[in-house]
Amino acid sequence: MTADLTSAFRHAPIGVALATVDGVLTEVNAALTELLGHAAGHMRGRPLLAMTHPDDVPGARDACRGLARSRSRRWLHECRLVHRDGHAVPVQVTSSWVDSGTADPHLVMLVEDISERSARETELRRRSLHDPLTGVGNRRKFSERLMHALRHGQQELTPTCLVVVDVNAFKMINDRYGHQVGDLVLVAVAERLTSTARHSDEVVRLGGDEFGIVCGDTTTQEAAVLVRRLRRAMAAPLLVGDAELMVRVSVGVGVSEPGNDPDVAVVAIMAQADKAMYANKSSAAHWG
């Protein structure tokens, strides 16, 4: 390299590496060693794949094969590299296949830390899948988890249950105490449901005063146990601000049998759970 090129390589603000076409590092700059916490001497002679997060290695191998096939001057790939202390570093690797004819073909890699962007994207996705008031999953999250559970049930021949929970007389709570208290009641109900559900269950707010619990790989008997536990939990008053309120709920359960077609089952299980919930609500109203 000339002096100017050497300076540009050494002092570039992002990671830069030269590598063989097999991805073995031959030169690395200071930004890359700082990013991964390794000395340059430790990195030279090692493939970048050796510093790639194990879960991301298959994708990185595919990217390497794609670059070799295309011999592209600009091949982008995102993955996680592993810092010397063990934590994962999200990066975007831009690779260029160089075949000048005057030297052996080699790769130039730009390795950019995208931790902040990745964190923003993760937070945006979290917000897109969660109800801002209660913090539990929203309708979109519900659709994703229910379809995932139903597909698993089709593949693994396991049943799926859906528990629908509706807060009784919620309009009266809003009318009597105001919408701010009504919101606090929904938050408290969501917390009660979350504490009652199993770790594998997904509690979601379907909208208004209605919640759902997606229970994958769950029999009707197991769902009945969950419902009994839920009713016992809701029998205790909710602490809302400085007041204790008795809040009753109506509950319905839908079930999809093992092996059912998910696209058909998703409509049926929701209809069954809703029908059971409204029957429970009607019964509660009839008996006061």
TrEMBL record:
Residues 75-126 form the PAC domain. It comes from the Bacteria. Residues 158-288 form the GGDEF domain. Coiled coil: none annotated. Residues 1-71 form the PAS domain. Pfam families: GGDEF, PAS_3. CDD domains: GGDEF (cd01949), PAS (cd00130). PANTHER family: BIOFILM ARCHITECTURE MAINTENANCE PROTEIN MBAA, DIGUANYLATE CYCLASE DGCP. This is Diguanylate cyclase with PAS/PAC sensor. It comes from Modestobacter italicus (strain DSM 44449 / CECT 9708 / BC 501).
